[in-house]
């Protein structure tokens, strides 16, 4: 996998992925796009949500929505790395069995989500979920 990041102005940069997608990263707060650390957090949420939906759909569950609420703590002093990340999955669907949703979240966190697998080596990670009817 390859990517390119180029400076636009100030603390604003444009990232270009190998697949042709662009993202603006901005070190000012608020800026024109997420900060690099916000992008990492979004990547963790996106990666794990993709897994949860995929696992549930493969299990023939009727998922109509999936949201991940992320909350992260950062070190006070530079480098201001994440010290703790909490993920709360809100899964919506028709008669979703709690056991299958719990398993999907666990499989994502412990086996499939490559972003979380990298982060868990340096960060305390926890997850919870809730099921809402469609």
From TrEMBL:
Q: Which Pfam families match?
A: OsmC
Q: Which PANTHER family match?
A: PROTEIN YHFA
What's the name of the protein? OsmC family protein
- Species of origin reads Zobellella denitrificans
């Amino acid at each position: 996998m390859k990517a390119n990041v180029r400076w636009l102005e100030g603390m604003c940069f444009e990232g270009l992925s190998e697949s042709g997608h662009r993202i603006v990263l901005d070190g000012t707060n608020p800026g024109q796009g997420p900060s690099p650390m916000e992008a990492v957090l979004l990547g963790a949420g996106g990666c794990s949500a993709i897994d949860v939906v995929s696992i549930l759909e493969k299990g023939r569950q009727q998922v109509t929505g999936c949201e991940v609420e992320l909350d992260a703590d950062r070190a006070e002093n530079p480098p201001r790395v994440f010290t703790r990340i909490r993920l709360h999955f809100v899964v919506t669907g028709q008669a979703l069995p709690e056991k299958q949703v719990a398993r999907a979240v666990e499989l994502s966190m412990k086996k499939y989500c490559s972003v979380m697998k990298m982060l868990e080596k340096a960060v305390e990670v926890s997850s919870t979920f809730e099921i809402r009817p469609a």
